[in-house]
Amino acid sequence: MRNILVQLSMTIVASATLLLVSCGEGAIEEPELVAPSLTEASEITSTSFSVDWDFVEGADAYQVDLAKDEAFTDFVSPYQESRQSFSEVRLTDLEAGTTYYFRARSIFRDSFSQYSNTLEVTTLTANDSEPGTSLKNSADFSVGMAVQVARLNGQHEEVLQREFNQITSEYEMKMNIMYPSESNFDFSRADATVDWALANGIEVHGHALIWHNATPGWVENYSGTDEAFEALIEDYIKTTVTRYKGKVKSWDVVNEAFEDNSGTLRNSVFRQKMGDDYLEKCHRWTREADPDVLIFYNDYSMVIDPTKRRATIAMVEDFLDRGVPIDGVGYQMHISHDFPTKASIEAAAGEVTDLGLLLHFSELDVRANPNNDLQALTTQRAVSQQAKVREVVEVYNAIPETSKFGITIWGMKDDETWLTDFWGHPDWPLLYNADFSPKRAHTGFLEGLQ
Ligand code: G3I
Questions:
Q1: How far away, in angstroms, is 279 Cα from ligand 1 center?
Q2: How far apart are CA 142 and CA 408, in angstroms?
């Protein structure tokens, strides 16, 4: 278990109860304010932790204290009699491996309740690498993170090195980046990604050779013959896969080929110019370039869109029947804190593992604000998100060992998620806060591995 020493010292300074004091002609005095009741700290890191308590009836604010001694004489700035409106607080800029004492009391106008019980919390050591705190050290499958070259340094790098053993380029290993103009490859960003991974002993999952949403304009508007088009796609795939042979262990060769809710192939430029069997051709070219690389088909809504999933499984079964190279299927897993259900995820996962193929939960993020009803991540919603992450990991952890490839999280910190721009409102779908501290969702991932 994480070496967090959280001893609840129930030194009840005073537990005020709601007293109704009658005096004289039965007039009832103002009820005394009830003190907050603290249970445990959460999201404890080497420099921070969170505390939340139930709203106190009648309180219009709270006062919190943090000290290094139980007698509350050695206060920690700025948490001395600090006033706040919310019944939760995240205490930051703390020292690693240090024991702190926290208390709170309710406020109404200028009256105060008794102090709450005192929480004793010890922050993690600075380079806490206990198995319980690192995702990769706790899983028997690869734990991946979507990365961008500009972030392969600083705290991003520290977290990657501590917790992850696989990466996927979020956008810099797609065709529009690697093949920006005709007969002009630009592998600089892909090289930087792969070189960083190799230098850090981290695997690379290639994403994505063919995707209608990352096709360079010159390819979309190609004016040559279909035969010439097919030849240039074959050359692109073989050039790219050969370049990273032995370095990139797996590729999403084609991404998102099926329409939503119909099971028909998207009418992409690849289908138009190469035919319905363009996926087969791309898989075969990939295999010809690298006999060992793992070939994946990747798509979204694979749990909630049974028509798309059925079309995918039918294609995969056909490939297996005809000896078309395929090693696995990626379920992107862009889901929400309350949907889909664990049972539906389990059933959908089984349709791939029953074929003996690898299954990759390839782009996991868990929307905490799908209905845009929050302006900040509440404890209640963070708890719901933690439970969903736990369910996803429990499902994945239970699939046959022979089908385990990995779970990839689609972004490190909440403030970096693609979802904010995509949906146009705030969300907190990932495992780390903006300050790189692990969230309850991170704990949920670890819990799912138990
Ligand atoms: O970093 C550059 C910045 O320097 C530049 O100023 C700016 C404007 O050109 O572009 C920035 O790069 C953008 C990048 O995201 C980082 O924000 C790219 O233009 C933009 O195309 C890229 O979008 C990515 C998108 O795929 C398209 O490649 C998203 O990050 C990425 O999350 C998204 O991921 C996809 C998966 O590949 C497939 N499944 C769906 C998922 C979400 O759409």
A1: 24
A2: 8
